[in-house]
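ok trying this again, last paste got cut off
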Amino acid sequence: MLSGGMKAKAGVHLEKPRLRAKPTKGTKMTLSPDTKNKAMEAARYGMPIERIAMLCGFSSSETQWSRWINANPAFRKELDQARAEGELLLQRRVMSGEPNWQSAGWMLERTRGYVARASLEHTGKGGKELSVSGNLLGAFGGQSK
């Protein structure tokens, strides 16, 4: 029975209207060379994969990107390679000690998950306890007594 009390004719099949366009069988999204180059550059710089997806024209929906990237393993491998090359360049800058090497270290920490570890000596000469003034201790976040 249809809305309004009308009955469907026997043998007539009624379909619900599609809200989204139906993709044509066999179609596959391809990236232009310019878009692909931008994606590789972004990967070298350490841009998050969700942002790279947006550069490639995908919406913020991870499902569409995940399906596409899984269907294109060669592209995924190229992205991984670009990320590794970018990381190597940053590592080289840090290890060279060139001026402003700290910016490369900062990028490694923020985009590649590297953790900076700092250590302080807690004992003085001969293993004796250090005396730290209240002002100095306060500068490092400690409390003076």
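PB: full thing came through this time. The CA atoms of residues 25 and 56 lie 22 Å apart.
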